[in-house]
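Supplementary Text 2. Reproducibility record for the structural model of the 80-residue chain.

All settings were left at their defaults, and a single model was retained for analysis rather than an ensemble. We include the record here because the model underlies the residue-level annotations in Supplementary Table 4.
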Amino acid sequence: MVVTCCQLTEMITDRREGKLSSEQEEGCARHLAWCDRCRTYLRQMDLTIDTLRGIPGEPLHDEVRAALFAQFQRRKTTAD
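Retained model, structure tokens:
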């Protein structure tokens, strides 16, 4: 399976949660092996998620989480 940058950004959450098929996971791994921008995007997403999980207090409201992911998506789309 050939995975584009756009497809990879759409699969990031499922990949992080282990929900991809073996074919999708292999396609993501192959894409990340050569795409510096997507590796950077993945590191930024991981860092953001890990940082937010480490903040004590109330969890993010669904609206805030959705707004953050929408912003990440807009930035990624602009970069493509």
